[in-house]
Write a structure and sequence with these properties.
Length: about 325
């Protein structure tokens, strides 16, 4: 019962019973209505190869690029299996909102979330991982807890009261043993169309005795979700990394999704490798993503620019590009 509950609830905790070689973290993005305040808050837990570990809450200020890693004892972490409900010390995170009382760090207070919009879950495809969620040996699993939801409430930001009323939130998560050896990830909720979200990732995925270039992408516009993933039969047509821009293009039999993101400087976050939690990864919350969804052989379905976008480009990217070369650039 616990296995199926966990599988069909990617938003919940997957580490019950684990004592080593495991991490899990929830990425909570918070943006004010005027977009001036943009934050990522990441609660989670890391268990090392010898059984030691720590709980944590990371904070990234997208405006200033500063970041904080607030460490807690493992015993101060608690989370539910069948729902998004996480506690790290005095801080709590759930589908209803967040309550922050960090020992160190700039944020204090409470925010409420409106109804979340999760990536659909079915028995055949339990979330964004699709049938790969059933594979017990994946290095890293991914879940989308909410593509878009509105915020309300006030946070004390370094002692100054800031209203998040009318702001927009996004929620995703990762769990497993380590982040991929090389990956590109981007995400935005801020388009001219209010209820919209884009997320996309290409990564090196270990598989049995080898590896393959895995891809997941989704464009959600007012309740309609266009999905592109390895498991849907989509392909990554283009991955080009330039000093100032990142280009991605996904296609399936019906649609083509083209993404071009700026590549601004970001702040440093801690990411898991197999032996420790403190590999540093640069993430920006100031990117701009040009998004175009078109029908194959037809016209444009959606074409807008996403602001205050998240962007990570990390690891063995030359290897990732070589892996997708047979499908074209």
């Amino acid at each position: 019962m616990g296995f199926f509950t966990s599988l069909l609830h990617p938003e919940g905790f997957h580490g019950h019973g684990r004592t080593r070689r495991f991490f899990e973290g929830w990425y909570v993005k918070l943006v004010t209505a005027d977009r001036a305040q943009r934050w990522a808050v990441i609660p989670g837990i890391f268990l090392g190869p010898e059984g030691g570990g720590e709980a944590f809450v990371q904070v990234l200020d997208g405006a200033t690029k500063r970041s904080w890693f607030c460490r807690y004892e493992r015993t101060e972490f608690d989370a539910k299996v069948g729902s998004f409900d996480v506690r790290v010390g005095p801080n709590s995170f759930s589908a209803k909102g967040v309550s922050l009382a960090l020992r160190e760090g700039p944020l204090q207070g409470q925010l409420s979330f409106s109804e979340l919009n999760p990536w659909p879950v079915t028995l055949a495809a339990p979330g964004i991982m699709g049938p790969f969620a059933w594979a017990p040996f994946m290095e890293c699993y991914h879940g989308v807890v909410s593509l878009w939801h509105s915020l309300s409430g006030t946070l004390s930001v370094e002692g100054r009261e800031v209203s998040f009323d009318g702001g927009v939130g996004y929620l995703e998560k990762d769990w497993g043993q380590a982040f991929p050896a090389g990956y590109v990830w981007m995400q935005s909720n801020h388009f001219a169309t209010r209820e919209a979200c884009v997320l996309a990732s290409a990564a090196i995925i270990p598989w049995l005795t080898g590896s393959f270039p895995g891809l997941i992408a989704g464009l959600w516009v007012k309740g309609t979700l266009y999905r592109f993933a390895t498991w849907t039969g989509a392909r990554l047509e283009r991955l080009v990394l330039e000093d100032e821009r990142v280009h991605l293009a996904f296609a399936d039999r019906r649609h083509r999704l083209e993404l071009t993101s700026t590549r601004p400087a970001g702040g440093l976050l801690h990411a898991p490798v197999r032996t420790e939690m403190h590999k540093r990864v640069e993430e920006s919350l100031d990117a701009r993503i040009e998004v175009r969804l078109s029908e194959v052989g037809g016209g444009t379905v959606f074409e807008e620019v996403g602001e205050v976008a998240g962007l990570e480009v990390h690891g063995d990217l030359e290897r990732l590009i070589r892996m997708i070369q047979p499908t074209g650039r």
